[in-house]
Amino acid sequence: MPQTGTHDDSRKPSRGPPPTHLPDDPEPRELLASGTAPADVAAKYPTSSLAWAQLADEAFERGSVVESYAYARTGYHRGLDALRRSGWKGHGPVPWEHEPNRGFLRALHGLARAAQAIGEQAEYERCTQFLQDSSPAAAQTLG
To answer: Quick one: where's region Disordered (predicted)?
Structure first.
């Protein structure tokens, strides 16, 4: 006789939330690709996680870690807003393979990187796990 409170789902298929695909927003991506300064793109398109992620990367590369952290956090929160508008419920796949998701994923990676650099270990671990859970491909690609 089974124990009370146990439930065997081993024969049922495992189903998680569906992947979230952010809507395409090509203008910021095209401006960045054409060499427009990320600060100009972020000013024109402040909801673009990609512009904020690029600002975070550039700040980190020049050693401005706190500035990088602030840019990455802005891009991360803009991305969370966009994910929620797209039906995301706080967890589930955010595929790297879908290009419009990359700005959010890059901002999340940048936030983890900057958090580690300033010694904020709990934030680093949370963001690193969130990136891995959201997109193993992004975690591998971004390092």
So the answer is: 1-40
Local structure of residue 99 (DSSP, 8 states): G
User: 3-class secondary structure for 6-63?
Assistant: CCCCCCCCCCCCCCCCCCCCHHHHHHHHCCCCHHHHHHHCCCCHHHHHHHHHHHHHCC
- Give CA angle at 116 (113, 79), nearest 5°: 45
Cα 73 from Cα 76, distance rounded (Å): 5
Computed over every residue of the chain, the mean pLDDT equals 92
Q: Is the confidence at residue 5, as pLDDT, over 90?
A: no
Q: Report residue 138: phi and psi, to 5°.
A: -65, -45
Q: Hey, is 75 helix, strand or coil?
A: helix
Segment 95-130, tens digit of pLDDT: 999 999 999 999 999 999 999 999 999 999 999 999
Q: Which DSSP letter does residue 130 get?
A: H
Third-level CATH fold of 38-89+96-142: 1.25.40
Rounded CA separation 88/67 (Å): 28
